[in-house]
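Q: Convert this sequence to structure tokens.
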Amino acid sequence: MKINEQIAEKVSESLLQIKAIKLDNTNPFTWASGLKSPIYCDNRVTLSYPEIRTYIKEQFVKLINEEFENAEVVAGVATGAIAQGALVAQEMGLPFAYIRSSSKAHGLTNQIEGKVEEGQAVIVVEDLVSTGKSSLAAVEALRAAGANVIGMIAIFTYNLPVAKENFEKADCKLITLADYDTMIRTAADQNYVSESDIQSLVKWKDNPQAWSDNRK
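A:
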């Protein structure tokens, strides 16, 4: 994983400003897994802000042109990255598809919606990477269909060690516009959080499970 610090700071500041990223050490958020966290990220909110969604789209296109120039198809991970992926595909004049979390239980029982030919080079668009499990499930679905997944781009990652490990095991290149470490620095610089809050946020990232267990 690598990151452009200037872009990461701008994206982090935007996500904090529009409350796509919310920080609360006192009343932590509960993730679907049951894990308690001082941060909650919902990048769907960016779609409501034309200037921000356009900037994200433009940076995604730049990333693809620089790092994945042989991309033939853009694929979004449902549901959070469908809209952003479609915007990127439209800008680049490329085909678009999206990947469900699982196959439909009726109709054509598709997991991949849209046309992806065997052997085509696919760049996957994601809105958020936490552990990487759901993101990589989309990658595996594409590979099972015969696609050549050349990498994944995402708006934000929590930078959890387990995600790095999972992407390395899956042999999938991941590049994000912003990450947890840059977000913390930006939040501190812009006075979104206090010094004690920063310390707690750092502790959560170092050991999310231990942090969560202490809040139960």
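The beta strands are 21-23, 29-30, 36-37, 39-41, 73-77, 96-99, 112-113, 121-129, 148-157, 174-179.
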